[in-house]
């Protein structure tokens, strides 16, 4: 009896022990090959502590066996092969803003933190720009200011370059398409460690999938070569309204989505619900518009917003780095918390704006106390954006003609919420979003999606992406050993 118990115990313990040992084994092999300056294994080390900070602070709880700081594609290749040899789990981290569990975090495995890879360049003859995956878009933009150029990337300075692999919505997107549409060549370390180039001429299928088909799926991108764009003066700012204006503002957003034809004008409309008491004065609610015009004179593009009585209007002439610091510098850092995203996609018409807003608002009222912050963001996808995407070959979403819009649903839960309470509130929020429904035939935006929304399945190109995934990750190394979007 005793020996039976013992062997049962051994049988259950052995695989666990092996899995735990895989991380340290990979780490020691990587240390041997890359040297100890590129690997940190102590959770007390400040670099390590910095590396396990995520925008969704629930990810901070996971402890990698070590953090590896590759300096080149070659280093990434060595690390991936060592991880594979040890059968360890791993994660690839750029800016660490994806809120989904294990998308860029890992427990007892190897964290590949790309933060040391920050080289950039600009070629005035071709107007092509290059950047490596480390750092955040704010750093990338600052660098190209000296050339009066920029690249299509995040709308907030603090977001990392993984954004571009999920498509990447920028204030410049109505003119130039998604961030990934400006890709011209990528350097990619494949799951087997091979270093390849992906472009329209070289591995075109891999290039196709990497333009918006998601990060950590087909390999590790170690260098982006993109078409740069001019960046001069912008007329931009935030307008803040109180909630009694909610219907006027939603109508203005709806009109903008449907009728604005000036591709230099971009907006985000955000409705915010705070945990403060309601007191029938709507002090717990605010509406913040982000208005950005590429050029000093927006003409009439924003008149529908400025004609509604507002609390505050910060619109003024700004540089591009100032534009991505709206509404305040460090916005991404300051909004760290137990954050989760969901996404919806809709066409204008059928009161789709009001329907989504009213459902969300009713949920917010019913669930007071269960969140620190909720926001609902309206993100237009105009025809000019989808045209610009097509003109550059089209991305992995093969975006149907605009106008349509994505909704980003954010929920920040209180710190220390019990697991059952956390799960219940997430499920309830999920049900509310699901109940709002989505337009047929439009892709869910990867960058705003919750893992359970399986956005790839909504792409018309899903079967093609599955083929490409199978070709470049044939033994499911990435699929099995790191988090990411489901191809099943
Ligand atoms: C405050 C905030 C603002 C945002 N604003 C925008 C916006 O304006 N536009 C927009 O489109 N999205 C926006 N997003 C969404 C954002 O694009 C996604 O969260 C994106 O995943 C963040 O990329 P990251 O590099 O910061 O995060 P990470 O979590 O480090 O990376 C995201 C995913 O990509 C993978 N990955 C990253 N780099 C590589 C690489 N080089 N090779 C292979 N895989 C890689 C990671 O493994 C991870 O799964 C915002 C998010 C936040 C939190
Ligand atoms: C160490 O990693 C290399 C690849 O980087 C691999 O070829 C080798 O087999 C690994 N050694 C062990 C003991 O896993
Ligand atoms: C950038 O623009 C400014 C203002 O128009 C100009 O003075 C400067 O010469 C430009 N720099 C380059 C490198 O083109
Ligand atoms: C402003 O709203 C009106 C309808 O009230 C619409 O006709 C017009 O196109 C809108 N303009 C913009 C730029 O959204
Ligand atoms: C509006 O709803 C009807 C019925 O549900 C649907 O057939 C139609 O396609 C919708 N129109 C838009 C623009 O979504």
UniProtKB/TrEMBL annotation:
Name of protein: FAD-binding PCMH-type domain-containing protein
Residue ranges of every copy of the FAD-binding PCMH-type domain listed in the record: 60-231
Flavoprotein as UniProt keyword: yes
Key words, A-Z: FAD, Flavoprotein, Oxidoreductase, Signal
Family: Belongs to the oxygen-dependent FAD-linked oxidoreductase family.
Gene Ontology molecular function, alphabetical: FAD binding; oxidoreductase activity
PROSITE patterns named among the record's database cross-references: FAD_PCMH
Protein origin, superkingdom: Eukaryota
Species of the source: Penicillium canariense
Signal peptide: 1-19
A Pfam family recorded for this sequence: BBE
PANTHER family from the UniProt entry: BINDING OXIDOREDUCTASE, PUTATIVE (AFU_ORTHOLOGUE AFUA_1G17690)-RELATED (PTHR42973), FAD-BINDING PCMH-TYPE DOMAIN-CONTAINING PROTEIN-RELATED (PTHR42973:SF22)
